[in-house]
């Protein structure tokens, strides 16, 4: 009457569904509910990995561009800092100097200035290689700006009635790799005789 063994066998048997491709509408042992839920198909895995690779490539490309831009901006900042250092160095010594003379009797836009600095003769000038140089008591010319600069203009101008008031104007190009940035810097100083 009631076969326990057969009932257990039926309960433990996998759930089956009708295969839509089976023209006879019979139960198919090949496609079962449990077999279709075991994991990802190979094509799903390949598509997922491809999408992940595209996203990572775009992100890394953006990161490389950001790092390169940061490196160029840092190099440009260093080049401009060097130009500011040269101008500050000149103005600091000229502020404590006296007796400014240029190529002409009065500094009127000349690219060379000389003055007395605590008993030493200091000369600032723009050389033919577009580098600002400093000379102390007729010694060797020492560069104030680096080769990362192309200084186009260096002018020293004295104020009309004030012989010890000088304006320094520097114009040039900061060269960084294959990029360049134009700059112009100006400062006015007055001698503080001690």
How would you portray this structure in words?
The chain is α+β, with helices and mostly antiparallel strands. The chain has one domain (45-190). It contains 3 helices and 11 strands. It starts with a helix and ends with a strand.
Structure at a glance:
By secondary structure, the chain is of the alpha+beta class. The chain contains 3 helices and 11 strands; from the N terminus they run αββααβββββββββ. A hairpin with a 5-residue loop joins β6 and β7 (132-136).
Features of the shown structure:
rod-shaped; 11 strands; 194 residues; 37% strand
Q: Helix content range of the residues, please?
A: 25-40%
Please mark out the parts with pLDDT under 50 across 5 or more consecutive residues, or reply none.
Answer: none
Helical segment tally?
Answer: 3
Outline the biggest β-sheet: 5 strands, antiparallel
Give the terminus-to-terminus CA distance: 127 Å
Query: From N to C, what is the helix and strand string?
Result: HEEHHEEEEEEEEE
Tell me what portion of residues adopts beta-strand conformation: 35-45%
Question: What is the average per-residue confidence, as pLDDT, rounded to a whole number?
Answer: 78
Number of domains: 1
- CA radius of gyration is 41 Å
Q: In total, how many beta strands?
A: 11
Shape: rod-shaped
Structural class determined from secondary elements: alpha+beta
Strand arrangement, major sheet: 3-5-6-7-8
Explain the layout of strands and helices.
Layout: H1 4-12, E1 16-18, E2 27-32, H2 33-36, H3 42-95, E3 98-102, E4 108-110, E5 112-117, E6 120-126, E7 132-136, E8 142-143, E9 149-158, E10 165-176, E11 179-190
Antiparallel strand pairs: 1-2, 3-5, 4-9, 5-6, 6-7, 7-8, 9-10, 10-11
């Amino acid at each position: 009457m009631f076969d326990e063994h057969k009932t257990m066998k039926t309960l433990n048997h996998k759930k089956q569904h009708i295969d839509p491709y089976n023209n006879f509408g019979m139960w198919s042992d090949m496609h079962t509910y449990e077999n279709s839920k075991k994991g990802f198909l190979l094509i799903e895995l390949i598509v997922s990995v491809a999408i992940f690779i595209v996203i990572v490539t775009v992100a890394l490309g953006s990161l490389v561009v950001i790092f390169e831009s940061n490196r160029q901006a840092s190099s440009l900042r260093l080049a401009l800092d060097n130009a500011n250092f040269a101008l500050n160095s000149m103005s600091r010594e000229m502020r404590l100097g006296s007796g400014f003379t240029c190529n002409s009797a009065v500094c009127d836009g000349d690219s060379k200035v000389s003055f007395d600095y605590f008993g030493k003769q200091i000369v600032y000038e723009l050389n033919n290689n577009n580098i600002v140089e400093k000379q102390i008591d007729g010694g060797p010319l020492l560069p104030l700006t680096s080769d990362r600069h192309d200084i186009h203009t260096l002018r020293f101008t004295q104020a009309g009635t004030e012989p010890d008031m000088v304006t320094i104007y520097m114009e040039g190009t900061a060269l960084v790799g294959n990029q360049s940035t134009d700059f112009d810097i100006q400062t006015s100083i007055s001698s503080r005789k001690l």
